[in-house]
Amino acid sequence: MANYKVSLEIEVEANSPLEAALKVNQMLDDHKFDPEAFCWQFYVQAEDSTEIYSVDLEEETEEDAVLPVSDYKQFIN
After folding, report:
1. What is the distance between the alpha carbons of residues 56 and 22, in angstroms, rounded to a whole number?
2. What is the separation of C-alpha 75 from the centre of its chain, rounded to a whole number of angstroms?
3. Residues 39-76 pLDDT 10s
4. I need a labelling partner for 77 at 20 to 30 A (CA). Which of 6, 7, 17, 47 fits?
């Protein structure tokens, strides 16, 4: 079994950075992942690799869901 680094990006409406983080934390704690309400974007990299993949869980097949990323840029600098 390999180790992977997983980053996710999600947009939420909030009045402050703290409120935004608390909302996402609560969703994770409550397992409330309504695909109609939120669009999650995952970036995955194996510990022993330089390749980064974009993963879309709404796709039906792994071939469509997992795509290599040629120019990954962190969403927060």
Report:
1. 24
2. 11
3. 667 889 988 988 999 988 778 898 998 999 988 877 76
4. 47
